[in-house]
TrEMBL record, chain A:
<feature type="domain" description="Spore germination protein N-terminal">
    <location>
        <begin position="23"/>
        <end position="198"/>
    </location>
</feature>
<dbReference type="InterPro" id="IPR038501">
    <property type="entry name" value="Spore_GerAC_C_sf"/>
</dbReference>
<keyword id="KW-0309">Germination</keyword>
<dbReference type="InterPro" id="IPR057336">
    <property type="entry name" value="GerAC_N"/>
</dbReference>
<keyword id="KW-0732">Signal</keyword>
<protein>
    <submittedName>
        <fullName>Uncharacterized protein</fullName>
    </submittedName>
</protein>
<dbReference type="Pfam" id="PF05504">
    <property type="entry name" value="Spore_GerAC"/>
</dbReference>
<keyword id="KW-0449">Lipoprotein</keyword>
<dbReference type="GO" id="GO:0016020">
    <property type="term" value="C:membrane"/>
</dbReference>
<comment type="similarity">
    <text>Belongs to the GerABKC lipoprotein family.</text>
</comment>
<dbReference type="InterPro" id="IPR046953">
    <property type="entry name" value="Spore_GerAC-like_C"/>
</dbReference>
<dbReference type="GO" id="GO:0009847">
    <property type="term" value="P:spore germination"/>
</dbReference>
<feature type="domain" description="Spore germination GerAC-like C-terminal">
    <location>
        <begin position="226"/>
        <end position="391"/>
    </location>
</feature>
<dbReference type="Pfam" id="PF25198">
    <property type="entry name" value="Spore_GerAC_N"/>
</dbReference>
<dbReference type="InterPro" id="IPR008844">
    <property type="entry name" value="Spore_GerAC-like"/>
</dbReference>
<keyword id="KW-0564">Palmitate</keyword>
<keyword id="KW-0472">Membrane</keyword>
């Protein structure tokens, strides 16, 4: 017993010495990557990294005052993505550390070529996190991670927060993390949408710290269209308006603002309502002639944000009428995006998923040609909107003013 | 100071302990002179040995002698209560030798605690305890009279276990005072006190206190047996006893509690614990004890229950912090950077820029610095205190960071760990946490979280295996006892605790039957 103990203790000690502290990495040996961009040019992958320079960001010490750039962007290229990342060790003094990589931007060329090599890396590697948000850039992807953002210190983190904020407050684009993309591309319909990241304003990126000394920024990062991925390739783009309907159809709306016209069809949409809660149910049904009917029922409620019509909201029946109009608006949005998705022949609204869950047998037969069949589907929309609150005022401001005049 | 031991009845004739090996059991001889010679020889002609021959009117023709150690006795008591009555007695007694001694014992001496002995061995013991010995010509026994004077502090405020609210009394070095304090709190005939002598040279008196019927008879027997089995030349503090009677020697966790607070001891005794009071130290031992009792203070029961619960939870958290925080910090910063929020990672990374050591070494440097400062703080003369704290604050604080030897985050972690370790009311478990901390730090530095988890598992297994006088150390968590939970991590209101006490009482009586 004693011998066993000493032996195991001894071997453990030797093990500890041999292990050399195993996979220990000190924090001043790692280069923290906050954003990655992938481009494809002349038969080679170009991977760009946005590396954080901690001294410039930390409030500790004097370096914060010197105005060093908080990040450094550099690229490596090779025939494969992973090779390019490996090559980075030839030009960087630190080990690239991807666990805190917040966003990955791919160029349109990469998206058109197919994103499977990238997916492959994320499925295989431990240091690559699936919580990374993915974006497509219409031009060079590297340009986007060179861009500085006002207020924020680390652009990569800032962009991630931007899309999170967007998903929570206006629900036009989903926050497409690598995990969700993988899930949807491996799901029954094998289609998904990835938002576009674009530089608006001046086309030159804001890449120097001194440019932040102005009170305005010439170029801004913002979310643009929604790139539709079918299989692993970019099938086309949806405009923000079209993208919004996708969110409704696929039950992803958390909070969003909807503009409507209180006077009737065709006039200016100058009143708006904020959606507080919404749920969408999709019930697929096969008609006798073999075509699929999608019964989409939406239930939503919201609060009146602004109301420009001189109507008295206390009037009976009026709220019903307005609710009807808002419901129409939502319906219209869904139809628009449905048309757009049909045009691209890509089921990013997840109808295929609904069918596969309810009719797994039939789904097996139609699965192969689904993208062809998908535009043939009949959409049966039913929207129920409830105006939960009208805000603090019963009258419009104008009306209230005229009342005081009396 | 004179204590006439009436309150601590059993103390007068302590039994047990290892026999004195230097001289064998010797009876008194009938000759006064030879007896006196024996004593002088055995006590090595010590200068404080007084042998006072005198003649009493009681029996003028019989020579008597008083033998005592002058530094150990109270001269006033000796003169007033022993010598004067003996000298001034005018009745003429017929008795001689042993009968005379009994007469003196019963009628003359005005001291409460007296007894006859015929063993020189015992007589010497009692002489060394401050008794005086009356020898009578022709008698083959001697009369021991308690005139001892013991030097000691008065009962003062506790210094190591202070409370905001609660009695401000602490034990002192004198056994009889300590027992007196206990009797003052628990005025019950069920409070049994067994006393014995331990240590062949120091002949230290110890007393075992327990509440008869509440303390488990088994535990009482175990404690008694173990105390009686002690064979050691000297006991200078209760720490010796603790080390000699605990179950497992090789464990960082204490299996006996020590306290200088009478109310804490009383609380323990009322819950069935056994207290061991050792002469010469204010620290009283309590056994059996479980891990969770080290996080309780008497104050818990004086505050309102919600506040007491909060404070107790804080203590548990502090214990974990003081054990694990540096290890977690090392593991996170050297192995698991992905666990940190990005902003925090960058801040920490910026601090670590330019630090020449790996995280583990950095932490060890700071921890060792702190331990050295703490030890210096305890050992140094009081007057140097402020100097040390200033140097300490500077070394531990800004200077180490500015010099680029350690990062600011590490200083914070170490300081917080240090402060957390002072939250735990029992010093001896706080110190085990400090010791274990280094193990965890090494494990974290080599294996990261895996090391910490493995270490923690090993610690839990060890804890679960520990016993304190037959009681599993992790009670009431393992074995699990739901009703005891009311007073383990939380402190339920007294009303609820009373219900538990009643339930326990029923259990106990049904077991006894």
């Amino acid at each position: 017993m004693y011998r066993l103990l000493t032996r195991s203790a001894g071997s453990l000690l030797i093990l500890m010495l041999l292990g050399g502290c195993w996979n220990r990495v000190e924090m001043n040996e790692i280069g923290i990557i906050s954003a990655t961009a992938v481009d494809w040019e002349k038969g080679k992958w170009i991977v760009s990294y946005q590396m954080v320079i901690p001294q410039a960001i930390s409030s500790q010490g004097n370096s914060a005052a010197t105005g060093d750039a908080p990040v450094n962007v550099f690229s490596t290229e090779a025939e494969s993505i992973r090779k390019a990342i490996g090559d980075a060790s030839r030009e960087m003094s630190r080990k690239l550390y991807f666990a805190h990589n917040q966003i990955i931007v791919i160029s349109e060329t990469v998206a058109k070529k197919g994103i499977s090599p990238l997916m492959e890396i994320y499925m295989r590697n431990t240091d690559a996190r699936e919580t990374v948000s993915m974006f497509i850039a219409k031009g060079k992807a590297r340009k986007l991670i060179e861009q500085m953002l006002p207020v924020e210190k680390i652009p990569g983190t800032a962009v991630q927060r931007l899309v999170e904020n967007e998903a929570a407050s206006s629900s036009v684009y989903p926050d497409m993390t690598m995990y969700r993309i993988l899930l949807e591309l491996l799901g029954p319909t094998q289609a998904t949408g990835i938002p576009e990241l674009e530089i608006s304003g001046s086309k030159q990126p804001l890449s120097s710290v001194s440019s932040l000394q102005n009170t305005y920024t010439r170029a801004k990062i913002k979310l643009g269209d929604l790139g539709v991925i079918s299989g692993d390739k970019l099938a086309g783009w949806l405009t923000p308006d079209e993208a919004a309907g996708v969110m409704w159809l696929s039950d992803q709306v958390k909070r969003t603002t909807i503009s409507f016209d209180c006077r009737g069809q065709g006039s200016k949409k100058d009143s708006s309502v904020i959606i507080g809660g919404a749920s969408t149910k999709v019930k697929p049904e096969q008609r006798a002639d073999g075509r699929w009917v999608m019964n989409v029922s939406v239930k939503a409620n919201g609060t009146l944000l602004e109301y420009t019509c001189p109507n008295d909201l206390q009037q009976p029946g009026l709220l019903k009428q307005e609710e009807q109009r808002i419901a129409e608006e939502i319906k219209h949005g869904m139809e628009t995006s449905w048309k757009a998705a049909s045009r691209l022949k890509t089921d990013i609204v997840g109808f295929g998923k609904a069918i596969s869950m309810k009719y797994p047998q039939q789904w097996k037969q139609i699965q192969k040609d689904w993208n062809e069949e998908f535009p043939e589907t009949v959409l049966n929309l039913d929207v129920k909107f409830k105006l939960a609150r009208i805000g603090f005022s019963n009258y419009t401001f104008k009306e209230a003013q005229s009342k005081t005049r009396k | 100071m004179f204590f006439n031991h009436t309150k601590s009845g059993g103390l007068n004739q302590p039994k047990g302990g290892s026999p004195r090996k230097k001289h064998k059991e010797e009876p008194f001889s009938a000759s006064l002179k030879s007896n006196i010679d024996t004593f002088t020889k055995l006590l090595g002609h010590s200068s404080d040995l007084e042998i006072k021959p005198f003649a009493s009117d009681l029996a003028p023709e019989i020579t008597m002698s008083l033998v005592y150690l002058s530094e150990m006795v109270n001269e006033t008591t000796l003169n007033e209560s022993v010598l004067r009555p003996l000298m001034e007695e005018d009745q003429q007694a017929e008795e001689r030798s042993n009968a005379l001694i009994h007469l003196i014992k019963e009628q003359i001496i005005q001291v409460g605690s007296t007894y006859c002995t015929d063993s020189i061995e015992e007589a010497i013991d009692m002489l060394l305890n401050g008794y005086c010995l009356l020898l009578v010509q022709e008698a083959n026994s001697g009369l021991m009279i308690n005139v001892s004077s013991k030097e000691g502090r008065t009962v003062s405020e506790p210094t190591t276990q202070t409370v905001l609210r609660g009695p401000q009394q602490s034990f002192n070095e004198i056994l009889s005072t300590n027992i007196n304090l206990m009797r003052q709190i628990i005025k019950s005939p069920d409070l049994h006190i067994e006393s014995m002598v331990v240590g062949s040279q120091t002949r230290t008196q110890i007393a075992m206190l327990y509440l008869n019927g509440v303390a488990s008879a088994e535990a009482v027997k175990t404690v008694r047996d173990r105390l009686e089995a002690i064979e050691v030349s000297g006991i200078l503090e209760s720490g010796y006893i603790e080390a000699l009677i605990q179950e497992k020697t090789y464990t960082p966790f204490p299996t006996l509690m020590n306290t200088e607070r009478p109310d804490a001891v009383a609380g323990g005794i009322l819950e069935g614990q056994i207290a061991i009071v050792v002469d010469g130290t204010p620290f009283v031992l309590l056994a059996p004890v479980t891990l969770f009792q080290f996080f309780q203070t008497p104050e818990d029961y004086y505050h309102r229950f919600d506040i007491a619960t909060f404070l107790r939870l804080i203590r548990f958290v502090s214990f974990l912090i003081s054990m694990l925080l540096p290890a977690l910090y090392i593991a996170v910063t050297t192995f698991h950077q992905e666990m940190l929020p990005t902003t925090l990672l960058i801040t920490l990374a910026a601090q670590r820029e330019g630090i020449p050591f790996p995280g583990l070494v950095e932490a060890l440097i700071m921890e060792m610095t702190f331990e050295v400062l703490r030890e210096a703080g305890v050992r140094m003369p009081r007057a140097i205190g402020p100097a040390i704290s200033i140097v300490g604050a500077l070394v531990l604080g800004q200077a180490a960071v500015d010099a680029g030897i350690v990062s600011a985050g590490m200083v914070m972690v170490v300081s917080f760990t240090a402060i957390s370790s002072f939250v735990i009311p029992q010093f001896n478990i706080a110190i085990s946490a400090r010791l274990i901390r280094f193990t965890f730090m090494l494990l974290a530095g080599v294996f990261g979280f895996m090391g910490i988890v493995a270490g923690f598992m090993a610690m839990l297994i060890h804890l679960a295996g520990l016993e304190s006088f037959g009681v599993p150390y992790m009670t009431p968590l393992a074995p699990f006892n739901w009703s005891a939970m009311k007073d383990t991590f939380i402190r339920a209101p007294h009303k609820v605790l009373l219900k538990r006490e009643a339930a326990n009482k029923i259990n106990r009586t049904s077991k006894a039957e």
